[in-house]
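User: Last request for today: this protein with adenosine-5'-triphosphate, please.
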Amino acid sequence: MVRGLQDGDRIVQGSINGSRDESVTGAKGEDPRLLRWVAGQFRPYRGKVGLVGVLILVTAGLGTANPLLVKVVFDQALFVPGGPNVGLLGLLVGLMIAITIVAGGLSVWRAYLTNTVGQQVMSDLRSRLYTQLQALSLRFFTATRTGEIQSRLANDVGGLQTAITDTASTILSSTVILISTIAAMSMLSWQMTLLSMAILPLFGWQALVAGRARRRVSAKTQVALADMSAIVEETLSVSGILLTKIFGRQAAETARYAAQNERLTALQVRQQMIKQGFSIGVVTFFSLTPALIYLVAGFAQDVSPGTLVAFTSLQFQSFTPLSQLLGTATEVSSSLALFHRVYGYLALTPDIIDSPTAVPLPTPARGAVQLDDVWFSYDGAAPMSPNGSTNGSRSVTEHRWALRGVSFDVAPGMLVALVGPSGAGKSTLSYLIPRLYEATRGAVRIDGIDVRQTTQASLAQTIGMVTQDSYLFHASIRANLAYGRFDASDADIEAAARAAQIHHRILEFDDGYDTVVGERGYRLSGGERQRIAIARVILKDPRVLILDEATSALDTVNERLVQAALAPLMAGRTTIAIAHRLSTIRAADVIYVIDAGRIAERGTHEELLASGGVYARLYEEQFGAGAVEACWDRGGDNGYPQSHAPTRTC
Ligand code: ATP
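Assistant: Here's the final one, the structure of the complex with adenosine-5'-triphosphate:
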């Protein structure tokens, strides 16, 4: 069914911005595509759905039999001249009991089938949504709150449970029961049946109004739920709670949560009131109609007591499916808002996918990396042409380019350092190589193959990244390391940990390699986390290594350890390092100085210093004469600075 959505009318990834997008919240009108898609979810289970239909027909038929038998009981067995016909009465009562038991058994079977199908449809939706989210590019995740995503998976899909498990079977069973009941009523008296049904259009209209109101409130409720999930995720994650505590914002965050909670409560009360107010109205009216029937029967005079009792019990019997149908109509309306939200994510077209002609990179790859006139804008759109020409508004739009015409060639095995001021575009450039983002213009090639023409899986296999924020899963150190290579043996894992200078530290923990690192690895120090991240990449053994050598989290001891860990990692690979350490910069075959999205200079450390350009200025401004040596060399081969080295990191 997801395939069916991948037509031209899909929403391109990136057009959704948080939960406010109308196409996702269901604020727009009814969408026939949505209804078709909802129906399509049940297609794999059509056999079971068909069986449910048959069971509904049978139980509905059995349901009308008893009231009709009541007429026979009254008119032919109970109130007959000469006293009750006990033999016939016993037979009829036995039949009524048997019918009730069989109908009950069939109803249980039907409930089992509808629940199974409903839960399977929900499980399919959840899996499809998760698979879709995994396929979306980084751009989506930087623009969407994690809590919002979690809410769609949990609250929105969860909220569909009643609609998915009950709606179809309720509509079918209620319709069948209603039709058969009305047919039975008509057999008894078509005039009284007409009278009973005359008022129905009024309820239909009421159901429509209530349904629309519920849908509106339901859409708002799901947005409020998502907002609450986002607050929880943001403020109760380890980083969030740390920030809250550091800034003493617990009271403010509690108040923010309470306000959101209040809003959600009010919406939920409104939602319940619309639902219950409507059903109370329906039930009240239904309770009154039998009185009208007695009145009509009084005027008609030729109605037998048996007919009257049978008719009113059929009439009572019709109330349940009627009110269920009307209730379901409002339920479906509110569920559509949830379906809209789930469909909204499923209908996104991932902006980075494997081309149908994609070929895997050769294994092992040589590791040549080439950027050919690469322009990149986070906006996705091209606000101006690469040569800088716009419709006369260059100064307004120019700043939207994060990279402007970057070209370089890195030969296999080379060490390249990227340096430059903050915000220059260094990290952006590093994201384009493994195709986490796609160049807006120009090409990125690995071993001469455009990354758009190769598979994402082979790119991930060829390229390894150590980022500044070394993310670890809440799992054991062993499991975190094995993430680099699932089939790694314990010996492989230990060898990688030794190379990354973390093995002995791991052994100092009570549980050694089985120590659970805590949420995002917060139970470890920044340096330990980084060395584990390095060991993880050593295990992966990528041909091309991208290194964001941040040392801001590290003390001098850890920095030296990380430095030592990096050496074996870089050996024999193509390395592109966003370099902060002088040891890396000095060892680099080429240094590229990135400034405002362009390559401003290239050369070796000495060449760049001698040229007196941006690099020399950066060197002078940031570290001052002498200080930079102390700072950049700290932890390098020269060991610690002897003097009062600056405490700032590089
Ligand atoms: P630093 O050394 O401080 O990490 P950098 O050179 O790595 O900086 P980038 O992170 O590549 O710089 O950022 C380049 C530009 O792109 C900056 O102006 C930044 O604000 C912008 N930018 C970065 N990430 C995004 C994003 N996800 N969406 C929009 N703009 C972004």
